[in-house]
Design brief:
The complex is a heterodimer of chains A (100) and B (659).
Chain A: H1 4-24, H2 28-53, H3 57-87
Helix pairs in contact in A: 1-2, 2-3
Chain B: H1 7-27, H2 32-55, E1 60-68, E2 75-81, H3 83-106, H4 113-132, H5 136-154, H6 161-192, H7 197-202, H8 209-226, H9 235-238, H10 244-253, H11 258-265, H12 267-271, H13 274-295, H14 301-321, H15 325-352, H16 370-384, H17 390-404, H18 410-435, H19 443-446, H20 454-469, H21 484-493, H22 506-533, H23 537-544, H24 546-553, H25 558-629, H26 637-658
Antiparallel strand pairs in B: 1-2
Helix pairs in contact in B: 1-2, 1-4, 2-3, 2-4, 3-4, 3-10, 3-15, 3-20, 4-5, 5-6, 5-10, 6-8, 8-11, 8-13, 10-15, 11-15, 13-14, 13-18, 14-15, 14-17, 14-18, 15-16, 15-17, 15-20, 15-21, 16-17, 16-18, 16-20, 17-18, 17-22, 18-22, 23-24
The chains are: A mainly alpha (100), B mainly alpha (659).
């Protein structure tokens, strides 16, 4: 049996890869994808604990996260499309209206 | 009792109110109706009162109402009717009425016609209050009232600077005297607790000689101011700037005699102080001779008369000073007749010559103005003391008393006689210069010379009549008369213990009388010699004795001396006080203001820079801080996310390592 630490490590690695993607990439769509990566890293952790603890709550959480992630992707993509229509770019470095 | 006596001052007061309120707009050229009629009515009432006093039930103290009560200071408005005040109201109303009538002609056509009669009536009111008052306080009211009217009437032609100045001078000089009079009143009140004549005189014996002297000298200062004696006589010659009827009424016949009346009224107090009597006599005698000598050389017809008035007033004070108060009042009365006549006559001359007052530009007026000439001549004979004219009897009684009374002396008599000689000289010098000799009238005036209208000459004739017969009420026993006025006035003036005068022989009295007549005749002859027979003589004499002539012509430089020693130091003192005010008091006030302004300015600066600075610097601090901090808000999502991650990392790290 594969010990839980492997799952957790995998989840953490995926989460960190997602975080680094969020922090470093400039394309808004890539950032959105990186966020999905982070969510899924968390999902792996939830499911691993659910299995380990023989408790379904974690799996239900994971299902929720998947549902929320789908909604988030829909809203996020819609925002990005609207943004693109407005500014003709999806580069987050150029979108800095929230400045001083 | 004569309860209706209040009518006497009441009528002129009504006349004054009518003319004062309505004269300017409504009455105008008819102002003499209220003016003259009111005084005429007063004269009628005065005659009634006089009759009552002389032959009827006598006078008494008529209290109209209580003026000041319940304050510790009690004073009545009351009239004392006795022979003294009866004679005075007769003189004031009689002469006053004639002068009012005269003024109709003299002031005709003057722009201030209504004003003139209003002032004259106010003067009559004040003068009657003065002589009728039964207490010193009410007397002082009249005293100040006549002073005010004198000021107003001297400055009647106030457009002329000299007239306005003369009025001011009269007022200021009179204030000096009035200050003394007031002090006398205060002393009387503090010692007797009342102002009323009757109780004061009844209790006069409580005074010590010293207090009596102080009181009487204070009162005498008032009399000196009002009656123009040395050293306060300087205002009277200048007062001739007023219209001639004013000079006649106020500055010859009535107001200036108020001082004599007051001294005579207070004779009980004066009798207590030999020292005061001596002062009064000496001042009077010296004034008489001093101003008569000035009168010798004056060229202005009215100024000669003015110095003559001062001199005659000196006579009256001489009489008071030797205890002959009756003689003083007698002379006051006759003097009122002939001096009013002289002034009115000179007014008639001035009228005929269209305002010319310089005797050097007159002469040979006799054929043109016969009435004026003859009345003037009578008055001059009267003042010179030629029998049987009025002035002879009164002047001679004074001279006789000056010699024979216990207060009198040979020296006082000599001064009086010398003044009498000078009087005769300057009066006839005036007559010869004005009416006789060759005409020196300006050619363009000469063919306008005319006798004055009847309303001016009739008063002259009446006064001339009075100047002749006025003295006959006082023919001395030595001449076989009965000296009625003396006995009449003695009811008031000699009710105290009066030492019997030492008996002098009638022959001595005759001798003195003869001497004074001779002196007067000599004066007249000298004037005739110098101005008719040898007209070149006066100029030669003036050339021979230039010092004396200049001193007399310039009135002994008294005005200049006063200017130099009194007026200028006072001015300098006032200038000093003004500087004191200007620099010290105003300086203090302005300095306070300046300090306040300075303080406010500093306070403003403090507000601006410290308080506002604190507020502003606080906002600046925040402003600048915000400017620094807002750099954090890059607007780059990455930075925010990085910060979030970093923060989470820190919190998780803390959680892991410390808990």
């Amino acid at each position: 049996m594969i010990p839980i630490s492997h799952y957790l490590t995998l989840g953490a690695i995926i989460f960190i890869i997602g975080s680094i993607g969020v922090l470093t990439r400039k394309n808004a769509i890539i950032i959105l994808m990186s966020i999905e990566l982070m969510l899924n890293g968390v999902n792996i952790t939830l499911v691993a604990f659910s299995y380990h603890l023989a408790d379904l709550t974690g799996q239900i959480f994971a299902i929720f996260v998947v549902a929320v992630a789908a909604g988030e992707a829909a809203v996020g993509l819609a925002i990005i499309i609207a943004l693109f229509r407005c500014r003709a770019t999806v580069n987050v470095d150029e979108i800095q209206l929230l400045k001083w | 009792m004569v309860d209706y006596v209040w009518l006497i001052p009441f009528f002129p007061a009504v006349g004054f109110v009518i003319n004062g309120l309505l004269g300017r707009k409504y009455i105008k050229d008819r102002s003499h109706y209220p003016g003259v009629i009111s005084v005429g009515l007063s004269l009628l009432v005065a005659i009634l009162v006089f009759w009552e006093v002389a032959f009827g039930r006598g006078g008494g103290d008529v209290v109209l109402y209580q003026w000041i009560i319940g304050t510790g200071l009690e004073a009545n408005v009351g009239f004392l009717i006795d022979p003294l005040s009866a004679v005075m109201i007769m003189v004031v109303c009689g002469v006053g009425f004639l002068i009012h009538v005269y003024s109709i002609g003299y002031m005709h056509g003057d722009g201030g016609y209504y004003r003139f009669f209003a002032y004259l009536n106010l003067f009559m009111f004040s003068m009657l209050i003065l002589v009728l008052a039964d207490n010193y306080l009410l007397m002082f009211v009249g005293w100040e009232g006549v002073g005010l009217c004198s000021y107003l009437l001297i400055g009647f032609w106030f457009q002329k600077k000299s007239a306005a100045d003369a009025g001011k001078k009269a007022f200021v000089v009179n204030r000096i005297g009035d200050a003394g009079f007031l002090l006398g009143l205060f002393l009387i009140y503090s010692l007797f607790g009342t102002f009323n004549f009757i109780p004061v005189f009844e209790n006069a014996h409580i005074l010590t000689a010293a207090t009596a002297t102080i009181i009487t000298l204070c009162l005498f200062v008032g009399a000196v101011g009002k009656s123009a004696q040395i050293p306060l006589y300087v205002w009277l010659p200048d007062a001739m700037e007023g219209p001639t009827p004013v000079s006649a009424l106020i500055h010859a016949a009535t107001m200036v005699t108020a001082g004599v009346y007051m001294v005579a009224r207070s004779h009980v107090l004066y009798s207590l102080s030999p020292y005061s009597m001596a002062v009064v006599a000496l001042v009077g005698a010296f004034t008489a001779i001093f101003s008569a000598s000035i009168g010798l050389t004056q060229n202005d017809i009215k100024r000669v008369l003015a110095y003559s008035t001062v001199s005659q007033l000196g006579y009256m004070f001489l009489a008071c000073g030797v205890g002959a108060f009756g003689a003083a009042i007698f002379h006051l009365m006759t003097h009122a007749f002939f001096k009013a006549l002289l002034f009115l006559g000179s007014g008639s001359v001035i009228h005929a010559l269209q305002g010319e007052q310089d005797m050097r530009k007159m002469g040979a007026l006799k054929p043109h103005t016969p009435r004026t000439y003859w009345t003037f001549l009578i008055a001059s004979l009267a003042i010179a003391g030629i029998p049987p004219f009025a002035g002879f009897f009164s002047k001679d009684e004074i001279l006789w008393q000056a010699f024979s009374s216990p207060h009198g002396s040979l020296w006082l008599w000599l001064m009086g006689v010398a003044a009498a000689g000078m009087t005769a000289f300057y009066m006839f010098r005036l007559i010869f210069l004005t009416f006789h000799g060759s005409s020196r009238v300006e050619p363009e005036v000469a063919h306008h010379i005319h006798e004055s209208p009847n309303n001016m000459t009739i008063p002259l004739i009446i006064l001339a009549f009075l100047s002749v017969v006025g003295g006959w009420v006082g023919i001395p026993e030595a001449l076989g008369g009965s000296n009625q006025i003396h006995h009449f006035l003695a009811r008031v003036l000699e009710h105290g213990a009066h030492p019997d005068p030492p008996i002098h022989s009638t022959s001595l009295e005759f001798l003195l009388m003869l001497i004074s007549i001779l002196v007067a005749a000599t004066g007249i002859f000298l004037a005739y010699h110098m101005y008719i027979r040898r007209p070149e003589l006066p100029a030669r004499l003036a050339g021979r004795f230039p010092g004396i002539y200049q001193a007399l012509l310039n009135k002994y430089w008294v005005d200049e001396l006063y200017q130099y020693f009194v007026v200028n130091p006072i001015k300098r003192g006032m200038r000093f006080l003004w500087d004191l005010d200007n620099y010290i008091v105003d300086g203090a006030v302005n300095g306070t203001g300046f300090i306040t302004v300075l303080n406010s300015r500093l306070s403003g600066i403090f507000d601006l820079y410290t308080v506002d600075g604190a507020v502003n610097s606080m906002s600046t601090l925040f402003n600048n801080g915000a400017r620094g901090f807002r750099r954090l808000h890059t607007g780059l999502v990455h930075n925010y996310a990085l910060a979030m991650v970093f923060g989470i990392f820190i919190f998780v790290s803390l959680y892991l390592f410390f808990i």
